[in-house]
Amino acid sequence: MAEGKGVPASERVLLLPHCLRPSDRCPGRPTKEGFLCPPDCAVEGCPIRILRAEAERLGYKGVCVAPGGALALRFVQEKRPELVVAVACHKELLEGEEAVRQLAEVPEVWPLPLSRDGCVDTEVDLAAALGLLRQGLAGS
Length: 140
Prior knowledge:
The chain is of the alpha/beta class. Helices cover 31% and strands 21% of the residues. It has a single domain, classed as Rossmann fold (3-Layer(aba) Sandwich), CATH 3.40.50. The protein has a four-stranded parallel sheet, sandwiched between helices. Strand 5, helix 3 and strand 6 form a beta-alpha-beta unit.
């Protein structure tokens, strides 16, 4: 992962799985561009809200909350980042990294597997995810 140290936040994207949302109280909705969180979302402890807010604070090129790899790959193709920070289950990460390698302009991928998967109400180590978002960025 050391290669990405010189990549500014403006050339990074964050990919998150929609299964991280707290399904019992999430006001968001699926769209063709990924899962859309309302701008005024205040769901306490929602990892998507926390990670999206930090990526935006750092100046990331974009954040995509995807139900699967096809939408996430399309997002990467459209944004053309130098670096992708990807959170997903182990299987999706492997498939996603392989798909990214086949792109014409191949960005670097920093994967972070979910700490608990299962397709609904999954979990990620928030401290590790926040650290990965900030890695290599001055003043973060």
